[in-house]
Amino acid sequence: xxDAATPMPGATPGKRSSGxxxxxxxxxxxxxxxxxxxxxxxxxxxxxxxLFLVALLFAIVxxxxxxxxxxxxxxxxxxxxxxxxxxxNRDREEMAKVTTFGYAPLVDTALAKALAxxxxxxxxxxxxxLRKLVSDSAASQIRDVVLADPALxxxxxxxxxxxxxxxxxxxxxxxxxxxxxxxxxxxxxxxxLVDAMADKGLLAKSFNWDFVFGADAxxxxxxxxxxxxxxxxxxxxxxxxxxxxxxxGVAASIxxxxxAPKSRWTDLIExxxxxxxxxxxxxxxxxxxxxxxxFAELPQSAPIVGxxxxxxxxxxxxxxxxxxxxxxxxxxxxxxxxxxxASKMQSVFHHVLPLAMPGILTGTIIGLAQALGETxxxxxxxxxxxxxxxxxxxxxxGFLSPNSAMPAQIYEWAKRADPAYYERAWGGIIILxxxxxxxxxxxxxLRRKFERRW
Amino acid sequence: xxxxxxxxxxxxxxxxxxxxAAARDQVQVAGSSTVLPxxxxxxxxxxxxxxxxxxxxxxxxxxxxxxxFCEGVGENTIDIANASRAIKESEVKACADAGVTDIIEVRxxxxxxVFASQLNGPAYDAFEPADIFNALGAKVLVDGKLVDNxxxxxxxxxxxxxxxxxxxxxxxxxxxxREVFEEKVIVAGCEATGAFEAYMAENGGDxxxxxxxxxxxxxxxxxxxxxxxxxxxxxxxxANANGIGVFGLAFYxxxxxxxxxxxxxxxxxxxxTIASGDYPxxxxxxxxxxxxxxxxxxxxxxxAEFFVSDDMAGPDGPLSxxxxxxxxxxxxxxxxxxxxxxxxxxx
Lengths: 454, 347
Fold this sequence. Notes:
The structure holds 2 protein chains of 2 kinds.
Chain A: H1 26-64, E1 69-78, H2 81-84, H3 92-95, H4 100-117, H5 137-148, E2 156-162, H6 165-171, H7 188-200, E3 203-207, H8 209-213, H9 228-259, H10 264-277, H11 281-295, H12 303-327, H13 331-339, H14 344-372, H15 376-380, E4 385-386, H16 395-400, H17 406-415, H18 419-450
Antiparallel strand pairs in A: 1-2, 1-3
Helix pairs in contact in A: 1-18, 4-5, 9-12, 9-14, 10-12, 11-12, 12-14, 13-14, 14-18, 17-18
Chain B: H1 2-20, E1 28-31, H2 36-49, E2 56-58, H3 62-69, E3 80-83, H4 89-97, E4 103-118, E5 126-127, H5 129-136, E6 139-142, E7 145-148, E8 168-171, H6 176-193, H7 195-202, H8 207-214, E9 223-226, H9 230-239, E10 244-248, H10 249-253, E11 259-261, E12 263-264, H11 271-276, E13 282-290, H12 300-307, H13 310-313, H14 318-322, E14 325-326, H15 330-338
Parallel strand pairs in B: 1-2, 1-3, 5-12, 8-9, 8-10
Antiparallel strand pairs in B: 3-13, 4-10, 4-11, 4-13, 4-14, 6-7
Helix pairs in contact in B: 5-6, 7-8
């Protein structure tokens, strides 16, 4: 090379720099400074990322924790025979004709009586005005108890009723006297009553299991809404995804990785699998609507359809991660198996697959976690709205009867008018995050515990 | 092998689902997000009081709901479409083409549309439709001539309004509310300012062309289309003190701690003024029932009857407590539903 003859600037041959090795020259200092700067950039980048994470978690925890407590009013309710069972023969069929509208006055009377018993002054002339303190669900709660055990009619039974969402908001400092000035749902006079009732122990906040296990509620009673049914919807969808995506994905990857001849076709398939992984999830939703609901005539809003759509979405993720972990098994294992006389299939199923299993499981769990948090495809197959209102009766029903999913339920709550739903949307996010974190931690543990390196 | 067993069981589940899909026992409803809260309140009470399962109510918008409604007859299609506007001729035709010929139209009541702003924001207390048109129209009438809208502050065309920069968050075109907004506010304002006449003259007396010219809104970011829900409009108002937003009355009534509402043409939006028709910006809400499904889907007729019963939709019922303006002619609607009168049949 003729270039070698040209003297390099600053490093003239024969005339070496006379400075000491211990003393840095200008160029070395410059390079070191560049390295130090780069390190600082890196730390700043991580710092910004952490800052966002902390801000996000702080916001979620701060906004979401109130959803886990709820205000309850404990009062004895007299189950008036004249109102609930006019004929007096305790016939369930006949008593079912009294609707929740017939039960509502019982709550008013019970509240007025409880206030009088505790010596709290009632500022309202009409008993009906007291109803604003209690959730609309109270009447149906009492009706359910009475219809389950008609013998209770005529007795006085202690009930723990949900307080109305505005009362609950006041106990959580979300609602103030000023903010009620123009609100027709509650008056400031009610709040005085609430203070007095809390004093006398009629009204208290406690942990709200119904939020975790309950069903969705209509816009008039956000205090009753829970994420439990939507959780079941998510569970059944994940079952579908697990039992379809895992075997299909693993079979496809084993064939592609171990058996398929390298040809134009397999190349094409590989490229398309990678492309599928990058397709926006909403596209799978449209596909699901067209193929599963309109063509295959599967029921609308059903977790089975949601599961099938999410399976399509998760498949590429599982195939890619499975192939990567199959590739990571060294060829010497296969050679040794073949060398002692195993067939190709024996070498794969007896030796390669068990060694690749931790990687496959990790990929599957991460794919499931991704599917669990997905909302967009569910919008199009009718899983958003007032849907998660009944627990499925049994296993098949869980797949077929209309249900929502956790992220879809959160999205729905965030849209609703009552501010109490906002709090529940954040609370739902906490539960969803707990699930996702658990799944990711399981994936990490599996990888740590079983992964082998060569 | 192991994975084969899994595949087999998965296929079994899929086969099972296809078989069991034939029996649907709950009413399925979809459509307008404005009607959704009312429909969900009714569905919940229906599930509690009857021996039928709670109906399923999906949102998605009036047009989307009616489109699904018109897909055909059968258990795989929805039974009821909620709509914040009357069904269009073209939709009735699309329905008929797909075999959905007998449709029962049920008017459940009225909904008011209000202009609201930040509670402690500028004094947007009273608007005329003309003000809104002057603020948002693509062209406005100045000295008898149509010119491009260059107003930047409310006070420039109405000295009674605050000297604040114009900023309005209006429903996007996919919302049923947009139609009412255009018809009852923008076109009304267009007529009031005289711009309608000018457009008529421009278009050779064509009323339709003039009206659609009126509905052209300015595109310089003073008028912002909100395609999401009212919660998004609320978030925008929260962030912009000088903004006004278009809301449904029920949404406003649940957020009175953050919003204040302006009068339109001097009338305050209350259930009374809307029921009497004094408040100009209101619209009827509907749901449409597929008659062919009555008797096939259990509880469908009972749900429709329960929806319009006095207990639910009456002036003291839970729907009006939530913000629905009760229909003064509810009794007629009730008898229409119990007689299963379809559209086009004489009343």
